[in-house]
Amino acid sequence: MHSPLEQKPDYLVCICMGVMHSEVVTAIKDGATTFADLSDILGVGTGCNSCIEEVHDIVREELEK
User: In the chain, where are the structural domains located?
Assistant: First the structure.
């Protein structure tokens, strides 16, 4: 378990769908392993597309843990 001080503050990743960083992380922990999975589950990347790179980065970071 990580110290709360080591965690990034929660923030809005996908403005169009109102998806927070914590929601993306939870979906990954629940089995989503690709951007396509997260798009299907949370709707990220289906609006203006500005969050696509950030979501890919989050997936990579979480799967490396």
Answer: 4-64
Query: Per residue in 10-60, pLDDT tens?
Result: 999 999 999 999 999 999 999 999 999 999 999 999 999 999 999 999 999
Mean pLDDT of the chain: 91
**Region label for 31, one of left (φ > 0), alpha (ψ between -120 and 50) or beta (otherwise):** left
The two structure tokens encoding residue 5:
């001080």
User: What class has domain 4-64?
Assistant: mainly alpha
Dist. CA 31–CA 9, nearest whole Å: 22
CA distances from 11 to 6, 30, 33, 36 (A): 15, 20, 20, 21
27: closest CA among 65, 64, 62?
62
